[in-house]
Specification:
The complex is a heterodimer of chains A (451) and B (120).
Chain A: E1 6-12, H1 20-28, E2 33-36, H2 43-53, H3 63-77, E3 80-83, H4 90-103, E4 110-115, H5 120-125, E5 146-151, H6 156-163, E6 168-170, H7 176-188, H8 195-208, E7 236-240, E8 246-250, H9 260-268, E9 277-278, E10 283-285, E11 290-295, E12 298-302, E13 305-307, E14 312-332, H10 336-354, E15 360-366, E16 385-394, H11 397-408, H12 410-413, E17 422-437, E18 444-449
Parallel strand pairs in A: 1-2, 2-3, 3-6, 4-6
Antiparallel strand pairs in A: 1-7, 4-18, 5-14, 7-8, 8-12, 9-10, 10-13, 11-12, 14-16, 14-17, 15-16
Helix pairs in contact in A: 1-3, 3-4, 6-7, 7-8
Chain B: E1 2-4, E2 9-16, E3 19-26, H1 32-38, H2 41-48, E4 56-61, E5 66-71, H3 92-97, E6 100-102, H4 105-113
Antiparallel strand pairs in B: 1-6, 2-3, 3-5, 4-5
The chains are: A alpha+beta (451), B alpha+beta (120).
């Protein structure tokens, strides 16, 4: 018989997320499912680079600590775990997880890894046919080495793993929301073409996919939006019924707040046309969603709808695209701004004399305009101190390094009275997107059971 | 009377590639009309100056009295390539909330009673 309601918790929303609130949620949340979402656009490309260096790695670096803190509660309480901590290496993550289950002496557990989101070879074989979404040009137009290509898989494979009895499902790249939708489809036997029900499910999943961003994280603005005990944010969970009725909440006694305002911010975060938000599982329509406070830190979510899922899946492609050099230096005291501006003049002159080959140069005055450039509000008073930041992009490492070195020589050869500069040179791992026919992506699931 | 948008609404910005979106939600439904009439793509372009180089589209979510502003070519070439200290544009919500809004007499009285200050 189907359950009348399930509770799904969010234990992470990025690779380096806090662990102790997730463990608290696992212990005290009376959950049915705990989901760890840890992949941003670039995370998986970085993970692929790591796997290239060491084939046993390439999964989330905090998987071990996260599972050591949480799995004992999940195991004793029968909470199933779904996560994309597999990143570039779901099978490596599976092996590590099985070892941890043995080490922790947990009851027999079935672990599944969803494999097949890595479509690098497919993309390399179709460089001329596949188009880059951002530019409309074929992949072959990209200059630089392609290091990764990962498709955003949907909930279907995770549902299959749950149907096969998996207690822990580990994936690589998949749509964030799909991690939360999978248990709904599995538990309530939702038809995978009941678009309105899937749409409502995905709206509820969307509320959880950024973790504590719905429970008061990245929300506080003193005097306008106050959040109690922000330092002890509780991570959220939803209670959802087979018909899609849903209430979002968090464990009593934790910090943070859940209100229609926090939910609305989270709902609109990173969507474009709210009537047509494309996921691998359903095209979501948010325009009919209503958010109602039904208790302290409890919001009811209704009115999500959906349309048929797309035939193509988005693929995220990572490419090495040159280098970035950065250097920052601070001037303080009377006349600091004039000295900072002179520093810029000197560095520009040095670039000219040394013949540096830069693709782009950016100069920011931290404290004045570093985040919003010419759109910044003008402060009529001169600041007491100002930090100048130089950033450049170049095709090779050498020119990026030289720019940083030129800034370094400001101490001794530039205007007077500055701090020592801090410099950094790093490789650019740029991300582009392409669409690949769903049927061309071959996925399989690997299982392992502990005894 | 003019007030900053911050007195009427809250906002959060998100990113996808080189596209930034900002959800703007009225604190009270009575402010929603002011936002619809004044926070137009044209005004947003003017307010963001050189930051937004592409198209600006606006979508409405009346049930939660919100709009979603979607701005193309707004993140310095994309999160992964940008030279900005804020490549995700997460601070763009704060910039938007610094937009001046002309507020009618009734709503001005409500804001003043809440202790909100108009622009000088």
């Amino acid at each position: 018989m189907n359950k009348s309601s399930i509770r799904i918790g969010a234990g992470a929303s990025y690779a380096g997320d806090r662990i102790e609130p997730a463990a608290h949620l696992a212990e005290h949340g009376s959950l049915d499912y705990l989901v760890f979402e840890t992949l941003a656009e670039r995370t998986i490309a970085l993970a692929n680079v790591e796997k290239f260096k060491n084939p046993q790695l390439g999964y989330n670096a905090m998987l071990e600590d996260r599972f050591l803190a949480c799995l004992k509660f999940c195991s004793t309480q029968g909470v199933k775990v779904i996560t994309n901590m597999g990143a570039a290496n779901p099978e490596g993550a599976l092996k590590k997880t099985v070892q941890l289950i043995h080490d922790l002496n947990l009851k027999p557990t079935k672990v599944a890894a969803v494999v097949g989101d890595d479509v690098l070879e497919y993309c390399k074989a179709n460089l001329h046919r596949l188009k880059i979404m951002e530019t409309g040009l074929p992949l072959s137009s990209l200059k630089g080495e392609i290091v990764s290509a990962n498709a955003y898989l949907g909930a279907d494979h995770m549902v299959e793993a749950l149907e096969q009895g998996a207690d822990i499902v580990i994936t690589g790249r998949c749509a964030d929301c799909s991690l939360f939708l999978a248990p709904m489809i599995y538990e309530f036997k939702w038809s995978q073409n009941d678009w309105n029900l899937l749409g409502q499910g995905q709206v509820c999943a969307d509320m959880l996919e950024c973790g504590a961003n719905v429970s008061g994280g990245f929300f506080a603005d003193p005097g306008y939006k106050d959040v109690p005990d922000l330092g002890n944010l509780g991570y959220p969970y939803i209670d959802i019924k087979p018909n899609g009725d849903c209430v979002i909440s968090k464990v009593e006694g934790t910090g943070g707040v859940i209100s229609p305002a926090t939910c609305a911010e989270q709902m609109i975060y990173e969507i474009h046309d709210p009537s047509h938000y494309i996921t691998p599982d359903v095209v979501v329509d948010f325009t009919g969603v209503e958010l109602n406070q039904v208790g302290p830190d409890q919001v009811q979510i209704t009115g999500g709808q959906g349309k048929e899922r797309p035939d193509h899946l988005k693929v995220s492609i990572g490419i090495k695209e040159g280098w970035i050099g950065e250097a920052e230096i601070t001037y303080a005291g009377l006349g600091c701004l004039a000295r900072a501006r002179l520093a810029e003049e000197v560095v520009r002159r040095r670039i000219e004399i040394s013949g540096l080959q830069l693709q782009e140069l950016r100069v920011d005055y931290i404290g004045l305009n570093s985040l919003h450039a010419d759109a910044s509000l003008v402060n009529p008073q001169e600041p007491y101190e100002v930090r100048v930041r130089f950033a450049c992009r170049s095709a090779d490492k050498s020119n990026a390094q030289k720019l940083a070195n030129e800034v370094e020589t400001l101490v001794g050869k530039g205007p007077c009275a500055s701090s020592l500069p801090r410099i950094q040179v790093r490789e650019v791992l740029a991300i582009y997107s392409a669409l690949v026919p769903r049927d061309d992506i071959k996925v399989h699931i690997v299982y392992e059971e502990t005894h | 009377m003019q007030f900053y948008l911050r007195e009427l609404a809250h906002a959060r910005a998100g990113d996808k590639g080189d596209t930034c979106n900002i959800g703007v939600i009225a604190y009270q439904s009575r402010f929603y009309d002011l936002i619809l009439k004044q926070v137009t793509p044209e005004r947003v372009r003017e307010h963001f100056k050189s930051l937004v180089k592409g198209e600006i589209r606006r979508y409405e979510l009346p049930k939660v009295h919100a709009i979603n502003l979607v701005m193309d070519n707004a993140l310095g070439g994309g999160v992964t390539r940008s030279l900005s200290l804020d490549p995700h544009g997460k601070s763009y919500s704060a910039l938007l909330l610094a937009m001046p809004i002309e507020v009618d007499e009734d709503n001005s009285q409500i804001l003043l009673a809440m202790g909100r200050k108009p622009l000088p």
